[in-house]
Structures are given as C-alpha cells and as structure tokens.
Amino acid sequence: xxxxxxxxxxxxxxxxxxxxxxxxxxxxxxxxxxxxxxxxxxxxxxxxxxxxxxxxxxxxxxxxxxxxxxxxxxxxxxxxxxxxxxxxxxxxxxxxxxxxxxxxxxxxxxxxxxxxxxxxxxxxxxxxxxxxxxxxxxxxxxxxxxxxxxxxxxxxxxxxxxxxxxxxxxxxxxxxxxxxxxxxxxxxxxxxxxxxxxxxxxxxxxxxxxxxxxxxxxxxxxxxxxxxxxxxxxxxxxxxxxxxxxxxxxxxxxxxxxxxxxxxxxxxxxxxxxxxxxxxx
Amino acid sequence: xxxxxxxxxxxxxxxxxxxxxxxxxxxxxxxxxxxxxxxxxxxxxxxxxxxxxxxxxxxxxxxxxxxxxxxxxxxxxxxxxxxxxxxxxxxxxxxxxxxxxxxxxxxxxxxxxxxxxxxxxxxxxxxxxxxxxxxxxxxxxxxxxxxxxxxxxxxxxxxxxxxxxxxxxxxxxxxxxxxxxxxxxxxxxxxxxxxxxxxxxxxxxxxxxxxxxxxxxxxxxxxxxxxxxxxxxxxxxxxxxxxxxxxxxxxxxxxxxxxxxxxxxxxxxxxxxxxxxxxxxxxxxxxxxxxxxxxxxxxxxxxxxxxxxxxxxxxxxxxxxxxxxxxxxxxxxxxxxxxxxxxxxxxxxxxxxxxxxxxxxxxxxxxxxxxxxxxxxxxxxxxxxxxxxxxxxxxxxxxxxxxxxxxxxxxxxxxxxxxxxxxxxxxxxxxxxxxxxxxxxxxxxxxxxxxxxxxxxxxxxxxxxxxxxxxxx
Lengths: 281, 473
Hints:
The structure holds 2 protein chains of 2 kinds. By secondary structure, chain A is of the alpha/beta class.
C-alpha cells in the first residue's frame, strides 16, 4: 500500500499526485516510469514519474484521467492509498550536454517532458520549451518549465493562449533559423504530435527523441504487449525504452496498437462498427 | 494389512484420475483433475514393487524418496508419506500437478516396462492435498542463526530456497517484482491445471515459517543486487523467465496478436476474461491460433477455448510425437476439442483494414533429418502455403533472458544467451550471490527451478558456515 500525500487537479482531467514510495524516489532517474494498480482486481498501468523528493520519499505523478483506471487513480484523495506502485522502470534518459535543445510537449505529455527538460537544463543545456494543448486550460506546467527554460513558446488549437495552431509552428521557425536550430529535439505527447515533430525534424536532420506510451501489462519485459517497431525491429518500450529515436519509430503501427481495447466491448469481443452504428440509431 | 505378493501387485491396473467432464470443463477454469480418493491412492500405491534400484529417485530432479513415500501411502500412513515429501520437496502439491512425470520418475518406473508406470505424480498430489487438510502447519525453527538471506523472485525456485533456508534457521526476505506472489505458478500456469488456492497455500506455509515476502520490488531497478549483497548475508536470484520471443514473420504487431506470456498473464494474474468492468481486458475471437508445442502453448490454447473460442487451434511445426508438452496436457486438450494442426509453420499474419488479425498464412512442413536437438527438422513443402482465417494469434515459442537485473549487475558472469553462469552449488561470480531457475537455464520447468533452489539453499548454508552475521538481531 502506498500513501497519497497530495492530489490536486491542475487542469481539466489532469491531476498532480504526490505518492510515498521511498525506494522508487531514491532510485528514480528522469525518463523512468512506475506501474500502478489502484486496487485489487484493477489494471496495472504505466505512469511516468514527473518528479521526486528522495528526502521525503515521494514521487510526483501527473495523470491524465481519461480512462477507467486513470479516473480511479485520481479519485484517491490525499491520505488514501494506492495498492501497488512498482518501479522505477524503463531506461533513464541519456542526459548529455549538447548545447541548444528544444523540448516539445503536447497535452499531458508535457508532464512527461518536464523531468527530462529539467535534467537537460541542469546538465548545462540551453533549453527552449514548446508546449501545446487544445486550449489554454490544457497548457500545463508553464511556470515550472519557465523556471529553467531560456524561452517558452505556447500554442493552442483554438488560439486561447499563445500562438494558434500546433507545436510544430514554433519548432519549424527554430529549425529554419541557423542561429536557433537545436542540436536535438525531445518530444512527448500524443502519437500524432510526436509523428509530426519527427517528420519535421527529419527534413532538417536534427536528432529527435520521443517517449512512447504503448499498452503494458507487467512493465518488466515479460509480456511483450508494449512492443513497437523501431528501425524495422521489435523493441519493448518497457525495457528498451520508453525513449526512442523518433526518426526510426513506426508511429502508425503504434497508433493502431493503442486502439486495441477501445474497439472491444466489455466482453472482449470486437465491436462491429456497422452494428454499433445501427444500435445507436 | 498383509503385504501383497509381487504377483498380486502386478495384477493391479493403473488407477484412473477422476476428471471434470471434458465438455463441461472446456467452458470453465476450475481444475481438470479432481484427485484420488484414499482408497484409490492406497490401491495405486500397492502397484509399486519397491524395486531395488529405485530408478524413479534418480529420475527426479530433487531426488524425492519416492518408494518410501509410496510404501507409506500403501499402508495408509499418509502422515508419514507427507513427512517424507515435505523434507525432499518444498512444493509437492504443485509438482504433483505440473511436473512432466512421464520423462522423469514415471518415465523410468520399472512397472512402465510392461504396461503402465506407477502414478507417482498423482500420489504425490494426493499426499500433499491430504496433508494440507489434515496436518498442522509447520512451525518456524526454535533456534535461529542470525543470518539474513535475500531471495529475488517468489516463483518455484525462490519459494523452494526460502523454505529450505527458513527451516535451517536463517531469516529470509523474498522480493517479488509483481504485485502478487508465485511467479510463473500464478501468472503462467492456468487455474484449471494449478488452482491458485494451492499457490496461496504454499506461500502461506512459508510465511508461517517466518519468511517475509515483499511485492512490487524489482531487483535491478527498485533495489540492486549490489545493495542486497551489502544488506544481507547472502542472496539467491531466481527472477525467472524473460522476454517472450515472437515469430519473426510480417504482421505480428497487428491487433489480436499476443505473446503467450501476455495472454496468460492477462487471464491468470490480472483476472481478464471474467467480465469485470474496469478490470484488465482481453481480446476474444471465434478462431484462435496458438503457435508452439510446449506446455505454455497447451495452456494458451486451452485458455482460448475457455474464453469462448469456437475453434481453438494449436499449430505446431513438427508432429505430436515431438511435442515437448506434458502428455497429460496434450490428452486433456484433445478431449476438450482443441484442434491440432501438425507440420504447419507461420509465414505471415494478415489483417483487415483496421489492423485486426483476419488470417495467418501458413506453410505445410515435412520432417527431415534430425537437427542438433536430436529431433527431426521440419522442412517446408514448396507450394503448400494457405491461409487460415482467425481473429487471435498467440505466440508460444519460449523466452529470452530478462536483462533488467543482469544489466544492472555487471559483476555477474553471463553466458552468450545472457543467462547467469553458476557453479555446481548454484554460486555466481559474486561472493555470496547464488542463482537458479530460468535466469540460469533459459526456459526450463518448475521442478528444475526447484532443484536449483534446493541446491542453492544448501550452498548458501555452507557459505554462511564460516561467516558472522552482518546484523545482530
């Protein structure tokens, strides 16, 4: 049992939870995740560790509550308990001093980006941060990222904050400007966003790291459910990742695999799209 | 009771195991074998002629004194039989159910030369189940040594070592990576073959012996072996099987393709298939094809049947004779209506427009000359390719070594398959650190992991003989 120290909603359907897991707090490095099971009988899901406080023995998770399991987890109040928290899992981010770096976050992916960006800045890199969301309220961690970024660009799809459009707009300008072009780009967010960023940086030949979030069961390499194709080979996101070279990832396959359980009914049978439409009518 | 003459013993036919009806059990997850009654067990035990050479004992990886315990059963002295088993085998209720007896003890039984061998596995299971019901739990030893041993993994290897060490008076702390105990006994072997209540019972026994089990600790990540080696007087690594192998054919990342590990873990460990809303889901289909011929393939295809597949198909590259699965599992599967397609190899998995499996393209094989393993090599028959329509594909081809622990522990010596190298006492290249089971052997069996655990426990005990406990209690 792992105690929830605090739990606050920082944006719609987005919670910041601080959880007491002393060993994970001590061992954890940026880029790693934990497997969380809210209570007996529920799913195990991977959640990236956003921050830690080894002295207090706590880790911070930023959770987008969109599915049944994530909704149940964010419903646990401060003082409550999560049954299982195991980690840290995945390979840590390779933090090198590369010079200029662009960190790009989309929606809740910004929470995953945050620890990477912080570690990269601490290693002496000049970090430019680009964060995007559907609208202003989905733009998260602006202040926190601003604390160590040289500059921060914000984009929203509806223009309610920052530039109207996608994160690729300011990124394109950085890449096109020889005086601002980053040595590497780190991108975390929805799969279409990471794909768009990778396609863009490829044309400029700028190395790009993405953090993938496929479906996992155990998170320790045992099940292979999180397999992704990288450079034509099967990789397991839980032990070989979750970070990969964005120019080598088969994003279309990843997108398709992520929809697996959205297309099944409660019994596990495939939903017939025509039948579902008929029932709706 | 007067002893039977050898002739009378030879006249008794091998007992039949009462089973759940095949049609009925193909729709549920409760255990197939129902167990022997006392009378049937005693009668079966009398078939043992107590031969001088005891080949069965040599055939057992943990050298259970089989004739001794069987003689006790024949005399109706089940308590004595249980005591013998308990000394030799830490998990008799488990091995009685899952050991490949036909290639071990029963395979070399003298009675098998003419007719059927003594049903050693069923008798072992009978005694273990009887003991669980009728005998008091073991007590922790009254004197303790003050030594503390860390065990990595609560599967068969870890449980065995922990039990042996606890009985020797050492304090044992097991670290388990998953949220529940038992390793492969829980996530891998299905309920219909090994009820989880049996696993719970074995784990509970250890707890009464004073063993501490902590879940959610991934050694190599949460804690390192180096940290354990400092904090404890000795370490035993039995972290089990590794990464599942895939077919290496196009299309195996389509939706509806599972490794057997994932398929079974979802059902066995996570409770998928019970229609619990919000629980772990699993995809079902009218036709499920499982590739492989081992015990895991049998578990997978029989699970598919129980999840409602109209056609649960096992496709294997060789023939029934070469299948590595336990013969009882193959027979049970056949009775349950599992469809076996022999001499068939996959070429490609095909999907519909939405990326879901719709068929697998396969090729017929024929057996050629024996390969390095001594089994005849399957050779493709040109022009024999065809499509098998299906919605789910399960791949049961075995595993490769899990790198989580070994990558974080450079002092361990590994072989070319990345398995840990050990000596005859299961000692690794690190002082005081022992290892066994699949992380040493690659894919093996429950009983071989237990054998390693037993050897390691004595190795550790011997290693500790000249040491002083690091922490005074």
